[in-house]
Amino acid sequence: MGAEPIVQSQDRPGGTTSGRIAGQAATSVDPQEVARFSALSGAWWDAGGPFAPLHRMTPARMAFIREALEDHIRPEAPAGRPLSGLSVLDVGCGGGLLCEPMTRLGAQVTGMDAATDAIDAARTHGAQAGLAITYRCGAAEDLLAESPRYDVVVASEVIEHVTDPAAFLVSLAGLLKPGGAVLLTTLNRSAKSMVIAKLLAEYVLRVLPAGTHDWRKFLTPDELVGLLRNAGLTAKSRRGIGYDIFHDRFVLGSDLSVNFAVYGVLEG
Prior knowledge:
8 helices
């Protein structure tokens, strides 16, 4: 039940939290998503606010990241910092909810998001935490012309918000080093996700603002794997992110019916 958009924001004189959009020409831009999430930018680090589901999912998302990157961990990585030596791009990073724990695990992290206000929130919180994280406002497509290449590209709870998932994944693949990894988490387009992630979450329990998701834009695991293949990426694993009602937490598992994660590699 994520909410981090990859939609851009273009700085304007006198811009407000309702509509600063960067990289407007990029294929993944959806101005309506920009406006929706920019309006919430002051709440990114409020664990009880509109991004509470993302805060609660972060331990499971980080567990997936660590699990998926086991083959990429370098022998010289010090204990407690297994991502040391890895360059990571977090696309659609929002307020930096994954950037910060990945940095603490040793990664050299660049966070990028569509909304200027989200990046402002991420920079402020990261500075307060004393973490060296590079934050940029823009789209993945914006980086292609600069030709940076990363060991890992993360897009968590993002692809369900872009206008062209296929083009978005091609951009992510273009930002990877050969053998690099792309890590995605998203929502399945299933009857169960319609009930849990849309109707219950947004309209009954109200743990997400109404209108956060468009169920029609969700991808099934098979569809996402197919799009990865078309972008030149080989899917290596698929994992479900489910809710453990007995321990009141999100955990990795085999049930892909609502939230799921995919790990792919750029072969070569």
